[in-house]
Request: fold
Amino acid sequence: MSEKIIVFDTTLRDGEQSPGASLNVFEKVEIAKQLEKLKVDVIEAGFPVSSPAQFEAVKRIAGEVNVVIAALARAKEIDIKTAYDALSQAEKKRIHTFSSTSDYHILGKFGHERYGRSLEEKRKTVIQMSYDMVKYAKTFCEDVEFSAEDAGRTDLAYLSEVIEAAIEAGATTINIPDTTGYTMPFEYGNKIVELKERVRNIEKAIISAHCHNDLGLAVANSISGIQNGVRQVECTVNGIGERAGNASLEEIVMALNVRKDLFNFFTDINTAEIYNTSRMVSGFTGIVIQPNKAIVGENAFAHESGIHQDGMLKNRETYEIMTPETVGVSKTKIVLGRHSGRHGLKSRMIELGYSLKESELDKIYEAFTRLADKKKEVYDEDLRILMGDEIYKEENHFELEYIQVNSGTNSIPTATVKILMHGKEYSDSSTGDGPVDALFNAIDRALKIQFTIESYSVRSVTSGRQALGEVMVRIRENGLSFTGRGVSTDIIEASAKAYLQAINQKMIHEKEKKSLHENESLNEAV
Ligand code: KIV
Ligand code: ZN
Reply:
């Protein structure tokens, strides 16, 4: 009998912790709805105590999406209570609480004497806290997951004790994170085997794998976990996440699917929705998918060399272990143009996975007709980018009203800008080393600000001279980075939009910080 592997998607929590990714509430809800179509079993929707926006996103998703919704909480009463409040409208809810268990983490985070004087005492404190907080979470909700953070580098005997305490307190899922992506697949698998042997009542809980990709082994470790007793995998779409990312959902799912001959496991994932989900996540987060990325990269099904092409024409299986259609990649490109009506646009957007309200359709239709006027052929990629750019942007922040930029050989680049916020106008002009520099200087002058530009990149979204250009700008202030994205057929305009969006992100962050009364404890690890 084939056994089911539970797919726990953490794109909206760990995935959103990717450097440069920031999703607003609307975008998160849209992704969650698409994850429901993809048929993931659990959506980790966020870390509610960490900000009002996180709380709001979890709350909205809990009310609108009908799969198990998980919310993250440190082993602290305030976190657990807040997680529960955010989840209250969910039909199926899970509180996911965690404690740090490796000596690195215990010594680093529990340095204060109140946690004990020696390592031995501090370790005991962590066991007690884990037990108490799982018990506390159980007063709100039956489904409680406990994670032993940095389990990958935790002494096995001690890890077994912590897990035993969490199970005794009622944890229904026990997660074994390889938080730093340190373990080798055989080690990770052995860890699961050892835990099954050592931990009393381990069979009362589902064992979960949560692997990071610092050595490029997150998927291999997750699969090794499955082979040795893991029945839930925690993963993200496109493998996004902290540092080098998390295990990629599509790679785990397709490995189990393509190698059914080896694995007696299945997931409920609707693989035909993989591509749409991947592109939606990339479009909203602004994290570009590398062309050679397995399953969802642009080249994943491209056959370049003559020998390969010849082989493919004779028999697809010569060089293809799965068909593109299995993961929702269509061979025929659908192109819309200025004569495609509102109805045609709406049905294409639905096919691409977006659930548009009438007011949103109005906005996207307007943006689409503007684009179709400039660019004869509008591709799926253009539509996805328009969604990210036009529909779900935050309101009440700086918006670009007007720019004029002059530059050329042997002339000094100059730029003039007009920016609006709440009907108030901010305008100024400046020169610079190039047109983009002049533009950013003019914006700085108009808004009386100045940021360090950490990175600036331009890419073409589709091919051809009139392709949409996507600009990403990352700014930095006081050790914090904020990313903005702008899209236009004119890359100077896209640059202005991207810079303003990064500034808007910074303002949103400041507003949130204020509304949390500068609660410093939120940045504490415990
Ligand atoms: O990587 C990790 O350890 C985590 C935990 C919070 C589960 O993300
Ligand atoms: Zn993680």
Summary: The chain has three domains: 3-285, 306-393, 396-513. The chain has a mean pLDDT of 91. The pocket of 3-methyl-2-oxobutanoic acid (ligand 1) is lined by residues 14, 98, 147, 149, 175, 177, 179, 210, 212 (CB under 6 Å). The radius of gyration is 25 Å.
